[in-house]
Design brief:
single chain, mainly alpha, 2 domains, two-stranded antiparallel sheet, 3 helices, 2 strands, about 10% strand
Amino acid sequence: MPRGGVPTLTLEDGTVLTEWIALLRYAGKTCTPRLCPEDPVAVAKVEVLVHILASMVLVICATYRLPKEEQLANRKEMLA
């Protein structure tokens, strides 16, 4: 675990990739069938969604440090 946590992906050549966004991009470009579009505009639209998800994950992860009742209240407020 080069960065001390998950997710990680070890490739056949021993290369270790970390960070979920990097792993999504790698999978999108190397999977069969290819998940990442070829068209630059379509790629940009996918990137927008990835960044929106990343922003949401950061906000939600910040609630993990709170007491359980505050976690639930904050998450309900976020969803509203």
